Amino acid sequence: MHTLPRLLFLVFVTLCALVHGVPTPQGPGGSPLRQPSGQFRTCSDVPGGSLQLTSLNISPNPVVAGENTTVTITANSTADITQGAAANVTVSLGGLFQVLDQQIDLCRAVTTLELGTGCPIPAGEKNVVLTREVPAGIPQTTYLVRVEAVNGDGSNLACFEGPIRIVQPANGG
């Protein structure tokens, strides 16, 4: 498997947790989410959406290549997530060099990750915990991840961005 698909896997896990009723941080101007190392923020250049993320935790943080990572998200959605909902995920090094730009069908992602049966996903509070093994081949560095999600009708669901640091295991992997 090439490095980019492996990196996509980690981003995909984070996004899929987000999509199962999870959103973006509250507050104008990019309020930080409570996350131990690094801060995810709402995108300052995209209007707020119907998903309000109240907490996001990635454990371990930093993420260790070749080991399990757990993403825990709590969020509240004021609108159902409908068929056709999608997210654009971009990953870059230092916010400058883009290494990934991927469109994801959110309804299909929920089913694929066994988080539900797809869309519609009812409005309301959601608590999602997802644990997956991160592929060992992901290079050690800090990636800037940006996720822009829209509902089936084209309205904004959420937009957030922040760093995800990946390290190699202490024993060298």
The overall pLDDT average reads 76
Helix-residue proportion? 10-25%
Radius of gyration, whole Å: 15 Å
CATH homologous superfamily annotation: Ganglioside GM2 activator
The appropriate CATH architecture is: Distorted Sandwich
What is the number of beta strands? 10
Cα distance spanning the termini: 17 Å
Number of domains: 1
The CATH topology comes to Ganglioside M2 Activator Protein, Chain: A
Q: What is the number of helices?
A: 2
Describe the structure using short key phrases.
globular, 4-stranded mixed sheet, 173 residues, single chain, 6-stranded mixed sheet, 14% helix, disordered N terminus, 43% strand, mainly beta, Ganglioside M2 Activator Protein, Chain: A
Summarize the structure.
The chain is mostly beta strands. The chain is built from two helices and ten strands. Strands 2, 4, 6, 7, 9 and 10 form a six-stranded mixed β-sheet that branches. It has a four-stranded mixed β-sheet with strand order 1-3-5-8, with helices on one face.
Structure description:
A hairpin with a 3-residue loop joins strand 6 (86-93) and strand 7 (97-105). The protein contains two helices and ten strands. It has helices at 3-19, 106-112; strands at 24-25, 41-42, 51-59, 63-64, 68-77, 86-93, 97-105, 124-133, 141-150, 156-167. Strands 2, 4, 6, 7, 9 and 10 form a six-stranded mixed β-sheet that branches. The chain has a four-stranded mixed β-sheet with strand order 1-3-5-8, covered by helices on one side. It starts with a helix and ends in a 6-residue tail after the last strand. It is mainly beta and 173 residues long. The chain has one domain: Ganglioside GM2 activator (Ganglioside M2 Activator Protein, Chain: A).
